[in-house]
Write a structure and sequence with these properties.
There is one protein chain. The protein is mainly alpha-helical. The chain has one domain. The protein contains eight helices and no strands. The N and C termini lie far apart (38 Å).
């Protein structure tokens, strides 16, 4: 086991930028405002399972169902695009099942946190970095995600209604641009 601290830091920061939990907070808070329950622990566990699972079997799984990484990335970008439109326009495209008031797994764990960008990055990192370093970096990101999810009510109170509206619109545009970039890169 050859673990290098500088490698772990590089991978952690790369994943942090791609996962973009800070940019996702307006989406998460807007879900909570729609009375959708967000369970930080459940979200982190599911996102972690998806990330580590995809690290080991992602390409094989996609190949098994006849998909390539690019098709998966484009599909993820379309979902992110729709979520961004919801944030910018203030309308709901995704209808919540009335029997399920949880948003912890869909759309937060997947595709927002463990989305196509994160999962394809993990698969490509495997060819460059030590697998143990990648797993440690994933765990560090999951801890940061848990803290952020756990403090969303506090953040919302600090920003207020108008502050949240501004941030939601701003990050909606950023999310829209990320979706377009992922689509363009993989098309």
């Amino acid at each position: 086991m050859n673990i290098k601290i500088d490698e772990i830091i590089t991978i952690t920061l790369t994943l942090f930028a791609i996962i973009d939990i800070l940019g996702s907070l307006p989406v998460i808070i807007s879900l909570k405002q729609k009375n959708i329950t967000v369970e930080p622990f459940k979200t982190v566990i599911v996102a972690g399972i998806l990330m580590i699972g995809f690290l080991f079997v992602g390409e094989k799984l996609l190949g098994f169902v006849g998909l390539d990484v690019q098709s998966f990335a484009i599909a993820g970008s379309i979902v992110i695009f729709i979520i961004a439109l919801e944030m910018i326009l203030g309308i709901n495209f995704f209808k919540q099942d009335p029997n399920n008031s949880s948003g912890s797994i869909v759309p937060i764990a997947f595709p927002i946190l463990a989305g196509s960008g994160t999962l394809t990055t993990l698969m490509s990192m495997r060819s460059v970095y030590n697998t143990y370093s990648i797993i440690i970096a994933i765990m560090l990101n999951l801890v940061m995600i848990y803290i952020m999810l756990h403090t969303t009510d506090f953040i919302e109170r600090q920003l207020g209604k108008n502050g949240m509206l501004i941030i939601r619109k701003f990050f909606g545009v950023i999310l829209l641009a990320i979706a377009v970039k992922v689509f363009k890169t993989n098309f």
